[in-house]
Structures are given as C-alpha cells and as structure tokens.
Amino acid sequence: xxxxxxxxxxxxxxxxxxxxxxxxxxxxxxxxFEGVWRQEIDIREEIEKLPTQNGGNYxxxxxxxxxxxxxxxxxxxxxxxxxxxxxxxxxxxxxDLAFLMLDETVKVVWYNPPFTNQVTYYEY
Length: 124
Known about the structure:
It is a single chain. The protein is an alpha/beta fold. The protein folds into 2 domains: 1-37, no CATH class; 39-123, no CATH class. It has helices at 3-24, 43-49, 65-74, 85-92, and strands at 59-62, 78-82, 99-103, 108-111, 118-123. A hairpin with a 4-residue loop joins strand 3 (99-103) and strand 4 (108-111). The chain is elongated and about 75 Å long.
C-alpha cells in the first residue's frame, strides 16, 4: 500500500467512526436511543394532573430559568434537583402554597416556597 491508499483508508475509518459516534450518542437527534435516555413528558399536561391544594390549581408562571436562577444564586438560594417527575411532585406535597415556574425553552420546572431561599427544580 502506498501513502495515498493508507491515507484514504484512515480517512474513511475516521469518517465512519465519527458518524457512529454522532449517530449513537444519546443526545443526538439521529440516535435510535432518543427519548429513551430522557423521560419525554408533556409538562403542561402533567401539571394539570397534579392534585389540587386548598381547592385550587397550581399557578404556573413562565420565567427565564437562566436569568431567574442566576439572581437566586446571587441571593444565596439553595437549589435541590429532583431526578424524576415523581420526586418533584412528592416534594410539592410538603408545601401549602407553591407557584410553579416553567421555562419550556430549556425544559425546567421549579418552585420556590414564599419567604425562603429554597429552590426545587426538575429538568424534563
């Protein structure tokens, strides 16, 4: 094999390996695993299913997560990440009043009980 053939074989091998890596990473839109690695949920529908507290529904505010969380961190906020939607909803049961905040762009829902610096959030 001459240098050209070796270079061609190596080039093709690199291209094929790159395609496999991009195609099979869990976050690639081309991956057969898309939707398997991350639980896909319709967050608004799930919020509507939440049990009502004190005879009313949860009030949902749309906010920019990056801006809001940055301000809260500057104010000394204590952030707790929930790994599943079930954990998140279970944590809500401990609060009489919760305003849910939602950023559908980055897919985060969170709440901050009044008069506290505690923030509980879930990335869906």
